[in-house]
Amino acid sequence: MVNMLLNGLQVSVDEGMTVLEAAKFFGINIPTLCYNEGLTPYGACRLCLVEIGEPGRSKLVTSCTYPVGEGLIVRTHSERVVKTRKLLIELYLATCPSSKVIQDLASEHHVTRVRFRPRDEKCILCGLCVRMCAEQMQGKAIGFARRGVDRKVTTPFDRKSEECRLCGGCMYICPACQARCQGPREEKPICNACLNLSQPCLDYFDDAMCFMDPCVACELNSGRTPKSERRNNP
Amino acid sequence: MTVTPKRLRAPEDLTVLRQSLVDRTDDRKPRIAVCGDTGCAVCGSLGLASSFKEIIERRGLKDRVGLKVTGCLGFCEQGPVVLVFPGEIFYRKVGPGDVEEIIDRTVLGGELVERLLYRDPITGQKLPRCSDLPFYKNQTRVLLEGNWRIDPNDIYDYIARGGYSAVAKALYEMTPEDVISEVKEARLRGRGGAGFPTGLKWEICRKTKGDTKYVVCNADEGDPGAFMDRSLLEGNPHSVLEGMIIAGIGIGARHGVIYVRAEYPTAVVKIRNAIEQASELGLLGENILGSDFSFDVTISKGAGAFVCGEETALLLSAEGKVGEPRQKPPFPAEKGYKGKPTVINNVETFANVPLIIKNGAAEYRRVGTEKSGGTKIFCLVGKVNNTGLVEVPLGITLREIIFGIGGGIKNGKRFKAVQTGGPSGGCLPEQMLDLKVDFEELSRAGSIMGSGGMIVMDEDTCVVDIARYFLQFLKSESCGKCFSCREGINRMLEIVEGIAAGEGSPEDLDLLEELACAVKDASMCGLGQTSANPVLSTLRYFRDEYLAHVELKKCPAAVCRALIRFQIDENLCTGCGICRKECPAEAIEGERRKPHTIDPNRCMKCGVCMEVCKFGAITKS
């Protein structure tokens, strides 16, 4: 057991835990997008930032990767953390506005404005699908390609991969493509957006990504033509 | 020098070899050193070297005149550079036609070739010797000293000048703990940019349990305009190897890896050659100098990603994986190359180590500041008169570097800003010129030491344009793994581009500042954390200029195309019509011998008219 100071409280936790796990254990809610209990921490979404160290010499670290340690001082909701976190959520919202997960995060954290030019990205590159495929499904069928703003999740050479066993794990875990909010419709005063969810994966992940044939999402969403039929009858 | 390689089995063998080499060298024998580094090579220095060789051979002077193709001599501005010893006579901009004359008059005759001498731009005096030139006079060349005298392809040259004696000393006169405490005592700090105390890093790694440990040399120098590490690797590769061996002794590692970018083919060849020569003499490999310490070095070539200069990304890339940073901790000293405890240092850091061990920490610390000892190599580039490679003691002021060594700003323009630390450094204005250059002071001023790039800007530079340029570079080099860096840089660039295009508002400046702070705080690795520096430092020191862009829609330096206008002065225009002919957009109209006018709607602001006008009638504002 190690002793640490969590938001001003002296707590003692098991050695080998991460700060995020410790905070969860004590009921402190830290938002995450790229974290999943069953997968290796990745530290890419930056939402789980916490402030560590003495005030004045503190720094922000991702709690999903930072190990607990004797005498560690952690603040999960300091002004600096909240300010940075809110700006990151605002950035997510500007980049991927149609994800219900992100919209929910925004309302939970009182992000009420977006000052950046909106774009509609389909993928937030959290890497959950890649880790799911490799670690839980032993598939290693998908991975990242290219870098920076061109980075994307794909199969080798963008071709249908023989390693893929069509298990659907990647789709199951994706925070962006499970359910997409279509946003308020102009003619209707009530949003109803949560009743208007549909799957975007069909358009975006056409050849490279969607190996589900017939696709689970298409089956669920009877309003769309299943992928196999679309391909045969364009 | 031709010596048959014989394996050295004891430290005494090394001393004997050195003595025999020293005995054979005659300091009075004339020698010619031709700079063979990239800057001079593109100006034809390699051709010069072969014609020197050809003439020396043809005239049977081979025994009387020595010739060396060396690494970078530093004064790239004046290349191709040729030095003649004894006397350190400095010839600049030497052409193929000058070769015969240099041999006849200087080498054999002992006179100077006046027209090839450097002329002081202020006094107008011709200065024959290196030590007279302000560029060299004001430097403290400790690491670069070797570049003048050593043929990088010849290990005997290095040994003759005391090379590898630090390895012998570390093996036979010191314990590994002594080695580490000596480096700690010298206050050597990582020259790669962050300035972490090297001795402390070694100590942590030594204390970490593990049977296999590694020493990794970071030679992935990717900053635009920076070539310190390349010059060391190409000019004096053995000093880096020697530093790595000593690090191996200190931490108890048997293996070393040099990660060098594939864009440095010459450096790769020279290191490979150096490793082969050192192995032949038993200075690398099993039982070095007859001791029970063994160490080998392999080369790993990078594939050209800026982010691979970050240590965790570099280690993954060296293992053959995708070069992306990972979140620290664990630090490489605990879990590094192949998951083993690893010391990773920059080229220049390793090159400092033999000096510390050989001369002792106290001697080493005579140069430098209280917290960081030694010298630092900078690449002085941009709008400065003397561009090149400069080595200065830590703690020197920016003014001494830019005006003392650099000789001031080109074409008599005014100094505006200097950017230290490459693309992720900050721009410092004139009032910061008396800042002492060390890790703490620079970081307090909002910049970083970085690996040593130093870009000087004059009054014709627009800071918004500069911020945009560096953000563009960082955007294409960000690996994209963590969201704050990938999207943050992209959005900062979006805002800055808007400002440069005249579409910015004062609120944009606040948003830009807020975003930059968040990116700095939230990003995973050094690239993201420092990517906001160009923006934050320019906002801090040149806010007026940003305000002029967003409020007045004017670019004070007349750089941002969307905000400038070209105009013809009626009184100066003679109506010659040359601008009308040259204008690619056909935006200039006017009758012959009558003042012309520019149609602002058609003008694409290329500036050709201004260049071709012989009467200075065209201005931009």
How would you describe this structure in keywords?
heterodimer, A: 234 residues, Ubiquitin-like (UB roll), 2 domains, globular, disordered C terminus, B: 621 residues, alpha/beta, Glutaredoxin, Rossmann fold, 5 domains, 4-stranded mixed β-sheet, 14% strand
Gyration radius from CA atoms of chain B, angstroms? 27 Å
The string of secondary-structure elements of chain A, in order, is EEHEEEHHHEEHHHH
> Which band does the percent of strand residues of chain B land in?
5-15%
Tell me the total number of β-strands of chain B: 19
Class of secondary structure makeup of chain A = alpha+beta
The total domain count of chain B is 5
Shape of chain A: globular
Q: State the helicity of chain B in percent bands.
A: 40-55%
At the fourth level of CATH, the homologous superfamily of the largest domain in chain B is NADH-ubiquinone oxidoreductase 51kDa subunit
Query: Structural class, from helix and strand content of chain B?
Result: alpha/beta
Overall number of structural domains of chain A: 2
Report strand order across the widest sheet of chain B: 12-11-15-13-14
Give the class-level CATH name of the largest domain in chain B: Alpha Beta
> What is the helix content of chain A?
25-40%
Number of distinct helices of chain A: 8
Q: Termini of chain B, distance in Å?
A: 62 Å
Briefly summarize what is shown:
The complex is a heterodimer of chains A (234) and B (621). With 234 residues, chain A is α+β, with helices and mostly antiparallel strands. Chain A is built from eight helices and seven strands; from the N terminus they run E-E-H-E-E-E-H-H-H-E-E-H-H-H-H.
Account of the 3D structure:
The complex is a heterodimer of chains A (234) and B (621). Chain A is α+β, with helices and mostly antiparallel strands. Chain A folds into two domains: 1-121, Roll (Ubiquitin-like (UB roll)), CATH 3.10.20; 128-227, Alpha-Beta Plaits (2-Layer Sandwich), CATH 3.30.70. Chain A is built from eight helices and seven strands. In chain A, helix 2 runs antiparallel to helix 3 (100-108). Chain A binds chain B through residues 41, 43-46, 49, 59-62, 65-67, 80, 83-84, 87-88, 91-92, 94-95, 115-117, 124-125, 127, 144, 146-151, and chain B through 305, 307, 322, 326-327, 329, 475-484, 486-488, 490-491, 494, 507, 511, 514-515, 517-518, 521-524.
